[in-house]
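Bug #2210: token dump truncated for Glycosyltransferase family 2 protein?
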Amino acid sequence: MSSSNSPRPSVSVVIPAYNNSRYLPQCVRSVAAQADEVIVVDDCSTDNTFAVAQSLAAENPRVHPIRHDRNQGTLAARKTGVLASVGDWVLLVDQDDELEPGTIDRLLDYVRDHPADIVHYGVRVDAANEAAQQAAAGMTGFLNPTPRRLEGAEILRTQFAQSGGFDWHIHHKMFRGDLLRRAYALAPDTRLLLSDDLFMSFIVDSLASSYVAVPESSWYVYHLGRGDTFGAQLTVEAMDTMADRDAKALRLIRRFAESCAAGHNDLAIARDDWPARVADVRDRLAEHTMNEWHDNLPAPLQEAGLQRILTHFSPDPDAIAAELWRYVRDHAYALLVAQREGRGDSPAAAHDRTEAQRFRDMALRIEAKHPELAERSDPAGRPANAHYHDLRAVAMGHLKDTGMIGEPAGDQATEPDQATQPPQPSGLRALIARLLGR
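Reproduced locally. Full output below:
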């Protein structure tokens, strides 16, 4: 522990809540024992959530319940709580999660010796069901940060990078209170779905001066699979809603970046890489949407679901095509490995051949409708999606090497260190999509 005798900074914890009040007491009590202020925002639940929050407030004067008069979504609930907070530091915790005892003191001690605006700590995943258990290992690696310090523009440049980035969840990070309140004051009053964390992370990164990740800090207890339909199949309608909200998040991020570049809303953030940073987020959002489509929408419904996705991502068909080429790459590489190991006639190899062809056909249909994707720049002269071109090139190389199309591409395209590993199930929505298929 630090030997500093300076006063302990005040800490606020914001908990957005909607129905599922069963776990709220465990969550609130885990943070009320550590924080100076706990704000529970009931987003107009239809169960007894607000009554439970009131009883917890009667039990502990640090707990302050707020109730929305209409359901507005997690982004709005977090915004209400953050703007009502007064702490020097603010943390967000989901209603069915909790903090390990002593977490806040350990974070304050660390940031005292390593000052930063964003303090990123780790997660212990507590899987509630079989589907969650299958995803827990991959999630643990993704959600526990690499110890490092980032300054200024490199925070945003790093977080959403294709490799070497860090997760974009708002929970399991401690934020300087003034920074987070300023960020949420800039957030529009709109409803997102699973992408509100990414949207707010983009804003916070843009405003922050420093970021630090705490080593060996798995203190946020993530109860994976509690009270949700983790692992359940999607319908086309649910896929449509998810794609709509992810595409909306991308539009909002583009609007925010344009405002920063133009100095609107008292935001004049000078950096010459706004288009590249928006492109990073575009690729992450497309990846998330398409992983949901691939993993949780039944195959017979995928064509219909893809058309819904393309409608919402109409300005960015290359981002969607890129993900299809990623699936082609993965299946073609798995087939190539099977062929080299003498298993080219196995049922698994036949499946990979069929899937590679199916996803290739989908990607080619998109390209047939958008011949401009073949160009390296669009009509406005902006660079084309390099991620799309790179994935397409590798996928085509693997297809040639398997003999599915044309002549073998040669060793350069098929060396194991230049190709992806066989695909893994992505499992958790919005958490490990970008971890998989790399």
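Output looks complete on our side. The beta strands are 11-17, 37-42, 63-67, 89-92, 98-99, 118-127, 149-151, 173-176, 210-224. Marking as cannot-reproduce; reopen if the truncation happens again.
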